[in-house]
């Protein structure tokens, strides 16, 4: 099988939208298709729309393979999505085989944070590094590990659950059921919750006032605005969350001794939060580990998982015809 | 170079003793030598005794190479011991080259927890597994990672600092300077400290009484005895430490999705502590990760690091003459 004369597709399945990219053999994006997921219509409906989106992005070009990225617990070896935080009805869906049948093409699946890590490593901020950790801090906190130059999956593709590293046994309840996971302490949804708590406790404070003025629920963005305007509670909430984020990064650095940590997701734009986190790493990481590591921002933006999914397909093709088994 | 007609040495450099093992080409231990470290005599004195111990274990047999395991931060690529918790004067000691010169043999060095992990993986509890974590919980808490079948070092050999995963930002001061590291909450020295605190606060309690009766300082072993005799404070201290240990294990399982966790060190014999830890993992780990992993006890005992050091030497020889560079 010659890889280089055909295109590959990367399809990112999100809770609200499906994005398909078509990449030429030189990894250039030549076409993209966005459409709504409409997850409420169930697995068959979503699969149908994924196939439509993939065909639209392909635009009649010869396609060698398809990579799919999706949130949740996925097993790339069996091609199964076990659970998805964004699509509550999805339980043990054999996504790889079901989509492969619809498209009559080889399909591989990958967790979206892993796919994002692969993309940053191959064509983004992590180019040329050997040991890289991607930490995606947005609404949730996810991660992907590139170890010895390869995406590290663990036993069944579950590796890299950075957001569910517990940092405070008495901390806030996490969506996973545990208390005090990094995600419950330092994610976008955790900051949104803090903003609502502050607004409730201080209805005359800046957080509540800014939210009222904008006609929105108090959230992390409002916290940023209020902190910048001098609100001490907003500032403290951002520092506390940033403190935990920095502790999570330091733990990862101690455990994996990476050369590079790539931080993606919207929270790196939250100035008080992110500066606090970097200060914690600088102060608390062991000198040896700190000397080895750089912390940089992701380069690829929201399309990184779809791009990474396409790269998975490329790399699998390179492994030869037995690769899919 | 033919590997199979010569012997290798594994030398474990500890704070109080040096252990040298001589292994035949089939990995059988054919000879061992113990002698005191006498770390107070400085680097040269210790190096001299390491060389004597190695020669004694060799007993005139033809030796192909030497592996050395040692505590602290080590860089196996440069052969340097950066710091050692047991030998305070050691700063950036080029142990590999200095010992190689004395013995006129190729030498490799490795962190002792990494060496122990390699030994358990190749000939102990981890045989045949692909992704294995060793957690050694004794006086301190160390670890080693076998990922994709190989010892994972990270950028400069610092990977696997499991004991310095922070679990409680307000927790007890750790020897590393941070607060609330796993080691400060759940190691042997942390339990010793808890025992002393309990004895001081309750001089008529079982912990204080047992220690007086035995004429020793209150320590973790006394906590075990007191808990078994029904002392609620001792029981609570062991449960709290075990809780943290279980949380540390769960974090590792979430992050690395291993097939096997091998627990070494004396604390696995502390019944309340260890049972509590296993209960936490069973209750808190994600179902996917829990289904993949077994948690077992180490098989090799105190000689695992020396054995692993010898295995490092064997494997380096197998990589060919360029391996040392």
Describe this entry's structure for a reader.
- The structure is a homodimer of 325-residue chains.
- By secondary structure, chain A is of the alpha/beta class.
- Helices cover 42% and strands 21% of the residues of chain A.
- Chain A is built from eleven helices and 13 strands.
- Chain A has helices spanning 42-58, 95-103, 112-123, 182-186, 188-201, 206-214, 220-228, 232-256, 271-284, 287-292, 304-318; strands at residues 7-13, 17-23, 29-36, 63-70, 73-75, 80-83, 91-93, 107-111, 132-137, 141-147, 150-151, 260-264, 294-297.
- In chain A, the strands form three sheets. Chain A has a five-stranded mixed β-sheet. A five-stranded mixed β-sheet of chain A has the order 11-10-9-12-13, with helices on both faces.
- In chain A, a hairpin with a 3-residue loop joins β1 (7-13) and β2.
- In chain A, α1 (42-58) packs across α2 (95-103), α3 (112-123) packs across α11 (304-318) and α5 crosses α6.
- The first copy, chain A, is globular and about 60 Å long.
- In chain A, 57% of the residues are buried.
Q: Report the average pLDDT across residues of chain A.
A: 94
Q: Uncertain runs of chain A with pLDDT below 50, 5 residues or more? A: 321-325
Query: Can you count the helices of chain A?
Result: 11
Largest interface between protein chains, with number of residues from each side: A-B, 48 and 47 residues
| Bulk shape of chain A | globular
Biggest sheet record of chain A? 5 strands, mixed
The main sheet of chain A orders its strands as: 3-2-1-4-8
End-to-end CA span of chain A: 16 Å
Instruction: Name the helicity range of chain A.
Output: 40-55%
Query: Helices and strands of chain A: which structural class?
Result: alpha/beta
Order of helices and strands of chain A: EEEHEEEEHEHEEEHHHHHEHHEH
Number of strands of chain A: 13
Tell me the quaternary state.
Answer: homodimer
Radius of gyration of chain A: 20 Å
Please report which band the strand proportion of chain A falls in: under 5%, 5-15%, 15-25%, 25-35%, 35-45% or over 45%.
15-25%
